[in-house]
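Good day; I would like, with your permission, to put a structural problem before you. What I wish to show you is a protein chain and, alongside it, a tokenised description of its three-dimensional fold. Thank you for your consideration; the sequence and its tokens are set out here:
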Amino acid sequence: MKAEERREIWESLGVIEDWLSGGARRPAGPEPDFVAAEAAAEAADAGAPRLAPPRPGDSLEAIAAEIEACRACRLCEQRKRAVPGQGPAAPLAIVVGEGPGAEEDAQGLPFVGPAGKLLDKMLASIALDRASNCFIANVVKCRPPQNRDPAPDEQAACLGYLRRQISLLRPMAILCVGRIAAQALLGGSEGVGKLRGKWREFEGLPLLVTYHPSALLRDDSYKRPAWEDLKLFRERLSPDA
């Protein structure tokens, strides 16, 4: 039942009560808290950005071709290969990282270096695989020099491709690995430590943040919280598992 319907019922009950007590209409009292709270929640939900529908005729192949020809930012100048993404056309989940590294730049595939091998193991632990049910992508599709953080204008030039991929694939949930990916999709400047462990939302889709596999390779202390995040992610995909 919507908040407006609850409000109408509340007002009707007031009229009935007045009639039973003698017919005089008393000044209306404040609405109960639950009516105001539900109305506020519905208004907030109505104003939240929702995932745009796919463009007519769009496809993973068409987006990939545009990415490979793209020269919208300086990252194209030194790339060997663009890295559009990899995975099936109807995935359960999308994993989003920040950008390609040296191995990815050489092969044109996401997460194929040491961090990528660890990511594959992390996904396998929750029954996800890039070959069957998980799409893997990055915020930027070309390697930043020396693996530096992608600049804001580079992210802005590339983010439209990721949005189109997400709109086309419509996964059950998004897993952001690392600070750059999380901030790109959620906004703000908070780090992974504050963002992880709690479900968030990207344009109507559930989104969970966890540590980048490269962080786990550098620091064993991140492995336990990352595993907790993965279990939480799996529960969303398969509540009965």
The longest strand covers residues 205-210. The longest helix spans residues 3-20. Residues 118 and 213 are 6 Å apart (CA to CA).
